[in-house]
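LOG
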Amino acid sequence: MDIHVVRAGETLYEIAGRYGVSPERLALDNGLENPTRLVTGQTLVILYPERSVTVQPGETLSAIAAREGVTVNQLLRNNYGLGGDVTVYPGQTIVIDYRQEKQGAMSVNGYVYPFVDREVLRQALPYLTYLTMFTYGFTSEGVLIDLEDEDLIRLAREYGVAPLMHLSTLTPEGNFSSELANRLLNDPAMQERLIDQVLEVLRAKNYEGLDVDFEFIAPENRQAYIDFIASLTARLNAEGYIVVTALAPKTYAEQPGLLYEAHDYSGIGAVSNAVLLMTYEWGYSAGPPMAVSPIGSVRRVLDYGVTAIEPSKIYMGMPNYGYDWPLPFERGVTRAPSIGNVEAVDIAARYGAVILYDEASQAPHFNYFNEAWTEHEVWFEDARSVRAKLALVPEYGLAGVGYWNLMRPFPQNWQVLNALYEIRRGLP
């Protein structure tokens, strides 16, 4: 695999010729809807097929997989242009494998809302170990708030992906509630009722485990939160379910702030089956323009995290989004909408912007002026930033990564991930 950065005036045909690959395949691999419209500074993932076959009349993808000694999911991963669809046609070229040595294996989790575009989700599912549905809440009486997730669970299992239930203190207004966490963590009877309901849902809906995300917990509830996760894990593990706990991105044990203080890395790490470190959102909607997940900040979290938690339990958070800030930035006033990789490149193309790359943060960015002559600053993710972050998984000995979130397409992410790593299966 190579990553090419488009230079001014380059065409797809010129780039394809330079690397000795098909321009059609290059466009397909990178999800280019308009191959004639390249942006200066845009990345293209270059893949080199080692072995390919041509679909014969009457052949199915499963038949090809069986004949070639690979899985259907592997063929879907190696042929992003299929869009996660097993339907193939005579004359179609199917890549069996690439000339790329894998750097190891990892588990991959992805978060989705129930209203996710099914086409976008199908594109991502072959690359996942787990799919986590966001989110089950609960009332102040400890009554679980249901989620319409049956279709997503069915779809995950269709691809051999393990579905995970998600439990949070998120309110209907979209805020994490400190008060709700406080009530639960100081009421043993309420905890038992809630755990009983969680187990009922896990059994009834055929989930494989639970992801817990309580944020902005009062510092005085630090030990109570550890105890709750311990009780939850014991109950769920006894029935074969795993428990993953999301943790704020801390860089030292006693880091102050409501987001951090009750997230005890050592305590929670010891009683959870796995943890997700939320290594993103340094650049955020209400903050000044900057990378969402700068590599230096991610490293500092991991440097501390692996001293407090067994590395093989840790999932590193991966952002599948960026932000588009109107300028000048005014704290308390400016709000940046979130955008995906495809949207960011489209914006750059529309306004003739040149995409730059910040080596310090390992993130792409650009500025542009819209129709109203308002200047904007955009930070997002591309193949380079993905490669840089994924390299941290084997470096630190982590279990894998968790993507927040899978609501937007990001073809290059999946190509880089698949080129460099084997993806562990979620289901037997």
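LOG (cont.) second protein
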Amino acid sequence: MMTEVTYKVLWVDDDETIVASTLQDAEDYNLELVHFTNWQDAEVALRKHFQEYSAVILDANCKIHRDSIEEEEFITAILPSLLSIFSEKRQLLPWYLLSAGTMSNFESIVKGARYQHSSHESEWGNMLYLKDAVDGSDNSSARLFENIQRVAKDMATNIVLYRHRDVFAYLGENHIIDYQARVLMRRMLSALYYPEKNIKYEYAGNPIRKVVEYVFRAARKYGLLAEECFDKKDHIVLLDASRYMAGLNINYYEGREVKGQIRWGNPGSAKDGAGGDSIFPSDIAMIVKNALNYSSADSHTEEETPYFIEEENKELFFSYVMQICHLIKWFGNYVEKHSDIEKNKSMKKYINSQSETVKEKKSEPIKLSKGDIIGKTFLIQKNNGVSVCGSYKLSDELQNRTGAVTIEDVIDNDGADKDLYSYIITEIK
């Protein structure tokens, strides 16, 4: 049975006598209060984990700095900083005051804060709640928690979180797949459900490819992806990674020299090892392959190349987003069932370069004629740091090109890697 969603709320209050009871009361409303005694520490956490929070609760009389004393002007002092964060993140979080209300200038402080809050009260509800109010009254902490729960359920990102809670169960800090993948999936799914607000969001690199890369990095962490699928700069060799987890043989190198092949488990009867053991079933392997072919070739997880969801391509883009949801659910479930890292690592099998498999491949090379290649369109991929189209290497002058290209001319490869790449592509369009 699916569990209820828990919403994180950032809470700033330096009254330690109420912390334990307030945290417990909030749990009854599926709220996880993340408590801070001062704004200095709270601000750092909010900036770092903004997407994880559904609301903010502030005391009216609190400490601004970690080592300072309570300040009656606390709200007046920190509100500009809070609003600045909203501006930077291009997203609002509902915020509220939970206070004892005993300060001498309490009314004037509340009046100033309400001016900033009032334009959103129709969606967020009342701003002010009192710590000592009778339970059930309109300004009690119970009503505050009830209100936050209601608002959080209606927020776009939290609706996404609820609809795809079986996906997000595997994403985030201390989860199977990295927190950054969680952020990307929330943004993409929010853009799907709320295009009027989110279409054309700018991303640093293609987010679909980035999420697939985070899945691969998680696979490495759990011993499901060989180190040979990463280059010296720790970039993922995506073609090798997808083939390895699909149960196909891949080359491993010393420098640029092919030393042999590796695979997951025992090979099948096909030359590439197909039909044997694999991690990915055929449908998951196809999702990964198609997603990588669709997304740009050089959008690694650490790159900053701008990417936008374009209106004319949104249907295709979001079809892959939904497939990635399925991939994440499948992979998370697989890791839960195969959590023995050392056992997973032991499944990596070496196929010696002198084995019959490799000999057969070398004795009967499949080489198309130049006429069969010219005019064909390929997506440029990276293979061990080399730009390739299919089984053919781009010339040195074309190594920086990316995307889908049509081959216009090739020459025979007489270099040291001729067994690996029979032709060198010299002209593309």
